[in-house]
Amino acid sequence: MEVHHHPHVEKKNFKEYFLEFLMIFLAVTMGFFAEQMRESVADHNREKEFMKSMLEDLKTDTAKINSFSMQANVALTQMDSLIHLMQSRDRAKYGRTMYYFGRTITTKLRRFELNERTYEEMKNSGSLRLIRDGALSDSVSKYYASQTHFKEQSEIQIQEMIAYIHSAVKVFDGAVFQNMLQKSPYRVNPPQGNPQLITNDAAIINEFVGLLHYYSAEVLINLSYAVQEKDVTIRLIKMIQKKYNLQ
Q: Which residues form a coiled coil (predicted)?
């Protein structure tokens, strides 16, 4: 009769079990920290890429502000001159200039809006959290929060311009305006000769001057905001360049 002997299994003591547990624990912990480090490096790279993109947006903003400021100053000069000529007793001598200024004023200014492309992408994807520097994060949030104000002011400027246009057609001959247009390339040329206003009614002239005043006042307000915003934009550009070593 065969006798089967069970193999002898040596029991592990507490120390061996503890060492196995410790090795598994360390392996899991190291893996966790490695994953956290990998995510941290990835987040940092994404943060820098977003900031590079935002930096380009801000540089575009400065160019837009410079362009708007130049256009606004030209428009304001023309508005001041047109108001003066309209109120002049011998305005009939300056029909050519009044027609030219009266028509080109509305071509000088575009809607004043800054670039929110990168900020909107970060906000919509939840990536604003990647900006780890508290001061920079606050500055970015405040900068783009102010854009709502600029959009509102831009809308008011458009409304004032529309009101001005409605008044201008009561004063200027539309056929003369049409002849001033050059189609290719698009341009508004000074009129031929010395065309006259279609009315000398004091009330209509006064209405025109009043609406032109409100339009110019809104342009002046927006110009003031643009100049202030340029300083803020430049400071934010410098903060980003310094923080991320970008140019």
A: 34-61
Q: Whole-model pTM?
A: 0.78
Show the 3-state SS of the chain: CCCCCCCCCCCCCHHHHHHHHHHHHHHHHHHHHHHHHHHHHHHHHHHHHHHHHHHHHHHHHHHHHHHHHHHHHHHHHHHHHHHHHHCCCCHHHHHHHHHHHHHHHHHHCCCCCCCCHHHHHHHHHCHHHHCCCHHHHHHHHHHHHCHHHHHHHHHHHHHHHHHHHHHHCCCCCHHHHHHHEECCCCEECCCCCCCCCCCCCHHHHHHHHHHHHHHHHHHHHHHHHHHHHHHHHHHHHHHHHHHHCCC
Given a cut of 70, the residues of the chain with pLDDT beneath it are 1-22, 25-43
Amino acid in the structure at residue 200: N
How far apart (Å, rounded) are the C-alpha atoms in residues 84 and 87? 5
For residue 147, what pLDDT is reported? Answer: 85
Quote the mean pLDDT of the chain. Answer: 87
Give pLDDT tens digits for 62-86. Answer: 999 999 999 999 999 999 999 999 9
Q: Give CA–CA dist 5/74, Å, rounded.
A: 107
Contact between residue 124 and residue 83 where contact means Cβ atoms under 8 Å apart:
no
Question: What residue segments make up the domains of the chain, in order of their start?
Answer: 14-244
pLDDT of residue 133: 87
